[in-house]
Amino acid sequence: MNNEIHDTSHISYESLLEGNKQFVAKSLAEDPEFFDKLANGQKPPILWIGCADSRVPANQITNTKPGEIFVHRNIANVVVHTDMNMLSVLDYAVNVLQVKHVIVVGHYGCGGVLAAMSNQQVGLIDNWLRHIKDVYRYHTKELDAITDEKERGNRLVELNVAEGVQNLSKTSIVQNAWKNGQNLSIHGWVYALATGEITDLKVSCSNNTNLNEVFRFE
Ligand code: CO
Questions:
Q1: Active site residue 139
Q2: What is the CA(139)–ligand 1 centre distance, in A?
Q3: Which among 133, 128, 205 is positioned nearest to 170, based on CA atoms?
Q4: Which is catalytic among the residues 110, 131, 155, 205?
Q5: How far apart are CA 112 and CA 52, in angstroms?
Q6: pTM of the prediction?
Q7: SS3 letters for 123-171?
Q8: Any bridge partners for residue 69, and if so which?
Q9: pLDDT tens track of the chain, all 218 residues?
Q10: What is the Å distance from ligand 1's center to 72 Cα?
Q11: Is 107 among the residues known to form the active site?
Q12: Is 55 a catalytic residue?
């Protein structure tokens, strides 16, 4: 393993436009009607809530195409019920697109999670990452017992995903979908930058029975 990072010196404003031409040509070669069909509408069965990190692009790492995943990303894939942006995406995905799965996807080595674990100030984002400090607080005993800092960070990444899954389940949007008999599951995954592999954290839920009673809507 070397310590170099991926070379981006060949990337420029112009090279992206050139890349787009190649994308169009390649897509049309595979399916001449590809863009005609996409222009007629979308019916993605999946909502992806992931980190804004440039190394975790939803489509590439799942080998999917435009039209197949509805995507929402923010720093450290935080899910909080006061985030109007996330709620709008969730509402549209669940109630209009009728997605069948919502997946919270974290990744090991997440800079946002590591920053939340430290006592250093980064800037405005400290207030966003505060939510992850709360996740740490809920699991202080388990996390403090992990002496290796990298391992502790990775565990916090997983716990932050699990928290996001729980927070999605607590929204009125998801609970109403379940009440109406909609086929909707919430999942938590973690992506390993070092291998490119996704692990299912097995924290899925498809009803509100696992929630603490006070969060359950009738
Ligand atoms: Co991240």
A1: no
A2: 20
A3: 205
A4: 110
A5: 10
A6: 0.96
A7: CCHHHHHHHHHHHHHHCHHHHHCCCCHHHHHHHHHHHHHHHHHHHHHHC
A8: 46
A9: 688 999 999 999 999 999 999 999 999 999 999 999 999 999 999 999 999 999 999 999 999 999 999 999 999 999 999 999 999 999 999 999 999 999 999 999 999 999 999 999 999 999 999 999 999 999 999 999 999 999 999 999 999 999 999 999 999 999 999 999 999 999 999 999 999 999 999 999 999 998 999 999 99
A10: 13
A11: yes
A12: yes
| Residue given tokens 């946002």 in the structure block | 112
Ligand 1 centroid, distance to 77 Cα (angstroms): 7
Question: What are the structure tokens assigned to 211, written together?
Answer: 């929630």
Contact of 27 with 35, CB cutoff 8 Å: yes
* Selected catalytic residue, list 72, 101, 107, 152: 107
Structure tokens that stand for 44 in this block = 């993605």
Q: How far is the CA of 114 from the centre of ligand 1 (A)?
A: 9
